[in-house]
Amino acid sequence: MRDNLSIRIKFQDLAKHLHTSERQLSRLFKDELGESFSDYYRKVKIQAATSLLKTTSSSLKQIAELTGFYSIHHFTKAYKQATGYNPGQWRKMEQSR
User: Fold this and answer.
1) pTM, whole model, 2 decimals?
2) E strands of the chain, at which residues?
3) Strand, helix or coil at 35?
4) Is the torsion defined by CA of 92, 89, 93, 54 positive or negative?
5) pLDDT tens sequence across 29-59
6) How many whole angstroms separate alpha carbon 30 and alpha carbon 33?
7) Which of 44, 46, 71, 87 is the most exposed place for a label (fewest CB within 10 A)?
8) In 3D, which of 49, 46, 23 has the Cα closest to residue 36?
9) Angle at CA 61, nearest 5°, toward 58 and 63?
10) Whole-angstrom Cα distance, residue 88 to residue 33?
């Protein structure tokens, strides 16, 4: 998942790829990671975006695309929900440190 963030991974496709049912895969995520697939996947994407915000000068649009968000609006909303800051604010705060 981490190596292919720019490709949207659907839960159904992941279950098929792993030759298991969606229900079983859902249970495995909850049992092993303590969270749902979508929560885990979103967290992985936000972590990757944070790293890119910190280490590159890529535009927010480029970072959104690289981390699998389907629009900059979706990226900004998800990032703010996860961190309390929109990505531009976070980058400015990080650069001022």
Assistant:
1) 0.86
2) none
3) coil
4) negative
5) 999 999 999 999 999 999 999 999 999 999 9
6) 6
7) 71
8) 23
9) 50
10) 30
